[in-house]
């Protein structure tokens, strides 16, 4: 890496090319989609031979990127509507702060098992007091939603360049639900969410089913998932941290440095080796703070 060039999307006939130089190193914090695009456009993978005539020579040609992977959390949504003038959850805020669970403390329990390879949670039940669907489900009354989130998807997507033009979008295939394991996990989560709704009624909350599966058969649950599943917009793993000779070759090492490129690090959720069982805001902050510590340590 010797320079970074910025090109304005509002070009005129007297185009000006601006250059920024650096003294020590460059840290890419562009996110799991754009960070990968930057590397791909810099000829960092042998899969770009057909585009090289459009790309200027760069010192990044020794860097190797395996077939980019894209993981995305997804969710299915169940809806319960209020059926009387009594407010069913008077203390339930729209944002999920701890008091939001006061009335549900005896209903929602943390349940763990060790059936997965790591024993990490694979589901999230997110109670929200508004219409959470995208697009929203039509209704005329107050709605309470239970969002069933798939936290560690087995389905693996992909990302590739549409062209050598950096202003063109990427070709992103999230590959939702292409692994049958994800259906099994979401079926389990929907059943749990329905039990939660039933317990809420038992405690006197005046609710009715608004948007539910036809039954709890595998076929009906799978049909409901296919109809309602949406992305959570938590993407990661496109520039994963792993050795170059790994079964799934990595892009960065354990110091966040891009393999084969001097003075270039990545510090965003693209480097996560495998999807975390959590929303990615906190991991993104943790990665940034750890990167800052590494940079300071290297300078001292």
UniProtKB/TrEMBL annotation:
InterPro entries: FAD/NAD-bd_sf, GMC_OxRdtase, GMC_OxRtase_C. Residues 153-288 form the Glucose-methanol-choline oxidoreductase C-terminal domain. One of its GO terms (molecular function) is flavin adenine dinucleotide binding. Its cofactor is FAD. Pfam families: GMC_oxred_C (PF05199). Monomer. Belongs to the GMC oxidoreductase family. This is Glucose-methanol-choline oxidoreductase C-terminal domain-containing protein.
């Amino acid at each position: 890496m010797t320079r970074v060039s910025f090109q304005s999307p509002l070009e005129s006939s007297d185009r000006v090319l601006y250059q920024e130089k650096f003294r020590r190193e460059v840290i890419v914090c562009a996110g799991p989609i754009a960070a990968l695009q930057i590397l791909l456009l810099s000829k960092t993978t042998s899969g770009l031979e057909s585009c090289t005539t459009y790309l200027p020579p760069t010192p990044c040609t020794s860097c190797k990127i395996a077939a980019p992977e894209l993981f995305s959390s997804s969710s299915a949504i169940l809806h319960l509507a209020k059926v009387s003038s009594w407010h069913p959850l008077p203390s339930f805020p729209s944002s999920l702060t701890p008091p939001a669970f006061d009335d549900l403390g005896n209903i929602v329990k943390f349940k763990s098992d060790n059936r997965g390879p790591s024993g990490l949670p694979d589901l999230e039940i997110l109670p929200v007091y508004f219409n959470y669907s995208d697009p929203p489900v039509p209704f005329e009354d107050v709605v309470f939603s239970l969002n069933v989130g798939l936290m560690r998807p087995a389905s693996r997507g992909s990302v590739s360049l549409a062209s050598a033009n950096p202003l063109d979008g990427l070709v992103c295939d999230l590959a939702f639900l292409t692994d049958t394991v994800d259906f099994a996990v979401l079926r389990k989560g929907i059943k749990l969410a329905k039990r939660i709704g039933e317990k809420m009624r038992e405690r006197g909350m005046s609710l009715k089913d608004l948007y539910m599966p036809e039954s709890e058969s595998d076929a009906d649950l799978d049909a409901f998932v296919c109809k309602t599943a949406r992305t959570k917009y938590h993407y990661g793993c496109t520039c994963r941290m792993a050795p170059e000779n790994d079964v799934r070759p990595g892009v960065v090492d354990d110091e966040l440095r891009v393999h084969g490129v001097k003075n270039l690090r990545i510090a965003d959720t693209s480097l996560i080796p495998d999807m975390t069982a959590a929303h990615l805001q906190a991991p993104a902050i943790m990665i940034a703070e750890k990167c800052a510590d590494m940079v300071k340590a290297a300078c001292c």
